[in-house]
Amino acid sequence: MTTPSSATPGQPHPLPRTQNELVLDHLRTQGPLTQPEAQDQLGCLRLGARIWDLKQRGYAIKTEFIELPSGQRVARYSLIEGASPLPRSEREPA
Fold first, then answer.
1. Which pLDDT score is estimated for 82?
2. What pTM does this model have?
């Protein structure tokens, strides 16, 4: 059996990251994200659904609508700085 070049011998293979993890990481490290950016950079076709998932997990995410140079209006999502996931008891009902 061969080991892929990206794997370290003797170490388990890293698990693939979920789209929720990719979106959250982008919001934390690179800032706001729109659907066209999510599709191009992360391969995420349903950013709104991933944002909903993250909000259900208690992350505070702001939504604002912007107009792109093409004239298209899209939602731009950003993580509210300093906010940590809310405890389940303080979240809005689904």
1. 72
2. 0.73
